[in-house]
Write a structure and sequence with these properties.
Pathway: Cofactor biosynthesis; thiamine diphosphate biosynthesis
Radius of gyration: 17 Å
Helix content: 25-40%
Largest sheet: 9 strands, mixed
Strand content: 15-25%
GO molecular function: hydroxymethylpyrimidine kinase activity; phosphomethylpyrimidine kinase activity
Keywords: Kinase, Transferase
Strand order of the largest sheet: 3-2-1-4-5-6-7-8-9
Order of helices and strands: EHEEHEHEHEHHEEEHH
Number of helices: 8
Enzyme class: transferase
Protein name: hydroxymethylpyrimidine kinase
Number of strands: 9
């Protein structure tokens, strides 16, 4: 392991197609010169256009894996992907914060697959604010933010200020301003506009974006800069092929 590379950890599902989950995260980490570790929350049977089956990893196994890594390594940033419940997520976060309070955490809020398979149960959402207070950034799209916070996109008064984390609202599903991401920081809202680069739909593009942000945070980039640079990376990735599977080596 190179002594001058930061370490990032992906805690996410295994997608055998490599388009999403830990495989996509590790590819992205490597392109950013970050040493990547991974812990699987789930194993899946899927392709880039079909989701078939999932097997969740027992929470105790995840916790022991997290403890093993954090007791051995200095992990600068963590990206969390699919989880079966908010309680499952909360327990992972609590262990990370206990072992390494300064580690930055990004949660890619993948609540459903594109084929509408539901990953995360929101039944225990009364703990949501407590959970989000342990996270540095969440990266929902417009559908996901409405599931988490109904009324968010209709500018319900005061709602944005009540959420105890930073939010990168991805614009890929926005009906009128497709490609414009909106970053909600504590006292600031910044629009990240798309370039004129031609983009093609990609399986797992949200995973790649959040992993790129995590990589940039591991390099100590400020959050706004980390998101801006990640947007440049994801646009190159979306431009790399015309198929649902992209190339991570993008010039």
């Amino acid at each position: 392991m190179s002594a001058n590379r930061p370490i990032a950890l992906s805690i996410a599902g295994f997608d055998p197609s490599g388009g999403a989950g830990v495989l996509a995260d590790i590819k992205t980490f490597e392109q950013h010169q970050v040493t990547g570790f991974a812990i699987l929350t789930a194993n899946t049977i899927q392709t880039e256009n079909e989701f078939i089956e999932i097997q969740w990893t027992h929470l105790n196994f995840i916790i022991r894996s997290v403890e093993t890594f954090f007791k051995r390594y200095k992990i600068s940033a963590v990206k969390i992907g699919i989880v079966p419940s908010l309680n499952y997520l909360n327990q992972i976060l609590s262990v990370i914060k206990q072992l390494s309070p300064d580690t930055l955490i990004v949660w890619d809020t993948v609540l459903k697959s594109t084929t509408q398979f539901e990953f995360t149960s929101l039944d225990d959402r009364f703990d949501l604010n407590e959970i989000l207070s342990k996270i540095d950034l969440i990266t929902p799209n417009y559908n996901e933010i409405e599931l988490l916070f109904p009324g968010f996109t209709t500018n319900q008064p005061g709602l944005q200020n009540e959420i105890p984390t930073n939010i990168l609202l991805k614009g890929g599903h926005h009906p009128s301003t497709t490609g414009t991401d909106r970053l909600f920081l504590k006292d600031e809202i910044t629009d990240l506009l798309p370039s004129d680069k031609k983009c093609f739909e990609k399986h797992g593009s949200g995973c790649v974006l959040s992993a790129a942000i995590t990589s940039n945070l591991a390099w100590n980039q400020p959050l706004k800069e980390a998101c801006r640079n990640a947007k440049i990376y994801i646009e190159k990735y979306l431009n790399s092929t015309s198929t649902l599977i992209g190339h991570h080596y993008v010039s």
